[in-house]
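Technical note accompanying the year-one report. For the benefit of new consortium partners, we illustrate the data format agreed upon in the data management plan: each record pairs a sequence with a structure-token string. No post-processing was applied to the example shown here.
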Amino acid sequence: MRSLLLGTRNPGKIYEIKLILGDLRLEFSSLNDFPDVAVAVEDADTYAGNAIKKARFYAREAGVPTLADDSGLEVEALGGAPGVISHRYAGDNANDADRRRFLLSKLTETGSDNRRARFVCAIAIATVAGEVLNLSEGICEGTITFEPRGESGFGYDPLFVPERYDQTFGELSDEIKNRISHRAHALLKVRDFLNQ
């Protein structure tokens, strides 16, 4: 495998993936290089299920082995929500700021002072024939802030303070985030697989 399609159009994800896997002897492309490829349906009830569906779909549609991830935020006081629907939690047309506001409002509605949360990521690599070559998962435990902090990252990053840190993913440097995040943990396992 010399070429690997990153099954996303999200510039933040592409940046994070290339930062961790970029020195491997692979030619990377993303869905931005395949504008005619449709969006994969994410209707599995697990991160792994969605990652596999996306990897298989994009590999078949683009004709290139594909790495795809699915990730989400699980908040204890919300019973693990938003979970696998993290991206759609505030509605299909919501942007990152809308999602953060909606999550904070839902957390306030609970009346709970429990701010525990975790980010979960699953990453799958599939061939054009649909064979899943690798599935890796990563978790990062932490807490939710009362308001967004920081301009870095994307999604819920400005609300999430990882364990043993005082800053959110939106405030921490890329160097630290890409060592401790859920996606980093999963990608380091992917890296080990690709190096074999």
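Partners are asked to follow this layout when depositing records. The mean pLDDT is 95.
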